[in-house]
Design goal:
The complex is a heterodimer.
Chain A (H helix, E strand, L loop, with lengths): L2 H6 L5 E7 L7 H12 L3 E5 L10 H13 L3 H7 L11 E4 L2 H7 L1 H11 L3 E3 L5 H14 L3 E6 L5 H10 L3 E5 L13 H12 L5 E5 L5 H8 L4 E4 L1 H10 L4 H8 L1
Parallel strand pairs in A: 1-2, 1-8, 2-3, 3-4, 4-5, 5-6, 6-7, 7-8
Helix pairs in contact in A: 2-12, 5-6
Chain B lengths: L11 E2 L2 E2 L8 H15 L2 H15 L5 E3 L1 H7 L2 E5 L10 H14 L4 E6 L3 H13 L2 E7 H6 L1 H9 L3 E5 L6 H14 L4 E4 L9 H9 L1 H14 L6 E5 L4 H7 L9 E9 L10 H4 L1 E5 L2 E5 L24 H8 L3 E7 H15 L5 H7 L1 H4 L7 E5 L8 H8 L2
Parallel strand pairs in B: 4-14, 5-6, 5-8, 6-7, 9-10, 9-14, 10-13
Antiparallel strand pairs in B: 1-2, 3-4, 11-12
Helix pairs in contact in B: 2-4, 4-5, 4-9, 5-7, 9-11, 10-11, 14-15
The chains are: A alpha/beta, B alpha/beta.
Chain lengths: ~250, ~400
């Protein structure tokens, strides 16, 4: 069984952390992964930096720009991850935009992911229909799960389709926003989380976008399997450095 | 089945196009996709669109036989005078269409991206006309380079927001506009300025610009006794003026299609905007097309002396015209384009936009027969480029 599904089957609520590979320093990727594993997070999303990350807010975009300046490339990332499964047991997901994967060659990209021990992908600008038609078989061949996003505006019928295609979790975008745009959740979001929960989907649900502290983590996981923190984690890295990872995670749960 | 170079129902031109968008944009784009053909086909829409194009934009624009130029190059040269449109270029055909569509979709807030500021001005203009709130995203660097257009937008009541991310130019302004749309999915319509972006934008914008070639058909019929030229020629950045003048001729094999891109300081100089020559297939702003990028798939910053041609991608229609060899692609360096800005001014009394001037340089690149009818899109006027002309020619 894929590590992602093993983790999703656990009893507890899950905490997944996103960070941009190659940030703050090019060679920080593995250090941060080890710190995260030691801090007890359940899953890790590694951002493959892109010059034009449409779905991301300023924090993640700036970290991507910096990572690219630092010299991060697709090959460099796979190289950094070469021996990663000797140290890291939790599921690893690569989150990135489709263009760099296309240029690398989608199949070659999947193959390298499998070689280093990546369990799944999140590709915000690869629509579910295109994935289902053109890439799902290929991803399956390399043992990769692809995770999709839904938002407060996604129609029910489309959510059902996404659920049907999903093999891992569904990423619940907390509000109509790019990443990092919220500081707390209101009634609208709670109603939305409840609505999705009540749909009884097959896939487990992880909430992301706008989760920054223990309070928003609690609110998000009240109606879902877990939550994803990205921008807040990156801000902390920026302010306090790679050695602050475990302290940061302790403030969340 | 008849070969067509127009978009299919999923928004593909051959292998290019589609909608590669984050899920957060899906509802916005889907609402537009489901409605754009329906709304633009209603009698009420057509009536208002045609009326505004006539009374407000000043259409039909003239088709002008350029006598001195024709004599010099020993061929028949016609100019479609889009430079005479209100606001100085063809851009307003599209913004009129989209604002009418936005109104019918119940939107009360408009956003747009702009590079040189022409599309920003055209958007601010129609928003003023309709009394709708307008926010224009513009790269921080472009704001500094294009002060007069920033002032125009402000006079027209628009808010100009600087795009401070990435390279701080057109592509980043587009990213910021898309982010704004993600954050405001219900009340906002995004007026894209060219035949780029996710489906339905390329097809929708091409349809609004198609009025250009529709008029050419009638005007050529009157002037030449046939409604088509032998060659139709336009400059291509994102490709909206080209899409407009090609539109009704694309599926007509009698018409040779010529696209002129900006070579900047030369194709191999590293400072160019010739996307067909330098680009590779990929995804930019939600569309699969040709774009300039690094081997690693990072989008690069193009260069051209004309701010309207330095987009790192090209519309999917044009990518398909290039790949299928339906159109002949040529790229023209800064210097030739600038010289043509002067030539057209002094031979025909028309000061063209630098973008537009690129197209005319085809006359030096290849020869045409004396009987050939050449149809140029004279897409914009040069007022906005005066400072560049002054610096370049030490006027």
């Amino acid at each position: 069984m894929n590590r992602i599904n093993e983790t999703l089957n656990k009893e507890q609520k899950l905490l997944s952390i996103y960070f941009t590979a190659g940030f703050p320093q090019l060679e920080d990727t593995v250090t941060i992964l080890k710190q995260l594993e030691a801090s007890g997070v359940d899953m890790i999303e590694l951002g493959l930096p892109f010059s034009d990350p449409l779905a991301d807010g300023p924090t993640i975009q700036e970290s991507s720009t910096q990572a690219l300046k630092n010299g991060m490339t697709t090959d460099k990332l796979f190289d950094q991850l070469k021996d990663i499964r000797q140290y890291i047991k939790v599921p690893l997901i690569v989150m990135g935009y489709f263009n760099p994967m296309m240029q690398y060659g989608v199949e070659r990209f999947c193959q390298r992911c499998q070689e280093v021990g990546i369990d799944g992908l999140i590709i915000p600008d690869l629509p579910v229909e295109v994935y289902h038609e053109k890439y799902q078989e290929l991803f399956q061949q390399y043992g990769l799960l692809n995770m999709f996003l839904i938002t407060p505006q996604t129609p029910d019928e489309r959510i059902r389709f996404i659920d049907k295609v999903s093999e891992g979790f569904i990423y619940i975008v907390s509000s109509a926003a790019t990443t990092g745009a919220q500081s707390s959740f209101g009634n609208t979001q709670e109603a939305y989380f409840k609505r999705i929960e009540a749909m009884n989907l097959n896939a487990k649900l992880l909430v992301g976008f706008g989760i920054s502290n223990a309070e928003t983590y609690q609110a998000a996981t009240a109606h879902s399997k877990g939550a994803i923190i990205g921008s807040a984690f990156i801000k902390n890295l920026e302010a306090k450095g790679v050695n602050s990872v475990q302290d940061f995670i302790r403030t969340i749960r | 089945m008849k070969t067509t170079y127009h978009a299919n129902e999923k928004g593909y031109y051959g292998d290019f196009g589609g909608a590669f968008i984050p899920e957060m944009l899906y509802p916005n784009v889907e609402e537009l996709r489901q409605n754009y053909l329906k709304i633009t086909a209603t009698a009420d829409f057509k009536q208002e669109f045609d009326q505004l194009l006539k009374d407000y934009v000043g259409r039909p624009t003239p088709l002008y036989f350029a006598e001195r130029l024709s004599k010099k190059y020993n061929t028949k040269i016609y100019l479609k005078r889009e430079d005479l449109c209100h606001t100085g270029a063809h851009k307003i055909n599209n913004t009129i269409g989209q604002i009418l569509l936005a109104k019918r979709l119940g939107k009360n807030r408009i956003i747009a991206e702009t590079g040189a500021g022409q599309h920003g001005v055209a958007t601010a203009t129609v928003c003023a006309l309709m009394g709708i709130k307008c926010i224009v995203y513009m790269g921080e660097l472009d704001i500094k380079r294009q002060a007069p257009n920033v002032a125009r937008m402000k006079m027209l009541g628009a808010e100009v927001r600087p795009a401070q991310s990435g390279s701080k130019t057109l592509k980043d302004a587009t990213n910021e506009a898309i982010r704004d749309w993600i954050n405001n999915p219900v009340d906002t319509h995004y007026i894209i300025g060219s035949v780029v972006g996710p489906h339905p934008y390329p097809d929708m914008v091409a349809r609004f610009q198609a009025v250009i070639s529709e008029e050419c058909k009638t005007q050529l019929q009157e002037a030449e006794g046939r409604d088509y030229p032998d060659h139709v020629i336009a400059c291509v950045g994102g490709g909206s003026n080209a899409a407009g003048i090609y539109y009704h001729y694309l599926d007509d094999p009698r018409v040779n299609v010529i696209a002129v891109e900006a070579a900047g300081k030369g194709i191999d100089s590293g400072e160019s905007a010739a996307t067909s020559a330098l680009g590779k297939e990929g995804i930019i702003h939600g569309s699969k097309t040709l774009l300039m990028q690094t081997a690693d798939g990072q989008i690069t910053e193009p260069y051209s002396i004309s701010a309207g041609l330095d987009y790192p991608g090209v519309g999917p229609m044009h990518a398909h015209l290039y790949r299928s060899e339906r159109a002949e692609f040529v790229s023209i360096p800064d210097q030739e384009a600038m010289d043509w800005g002067l030539s057209l001014s002094q031979m025909e009394g028309i000061i063209p936009a630098i973008e537009t001037a690129h197209a005319f340089a085809i006359l030096d690149e290849r020869s045409f027969a004396p009987d050939d009818i050449l149809l140029f899109n004279c897409s914009g006027r040069g007022d906005k480029d005066l400072e560049t002309y002054i610096d370049y020619f030490k006027l």
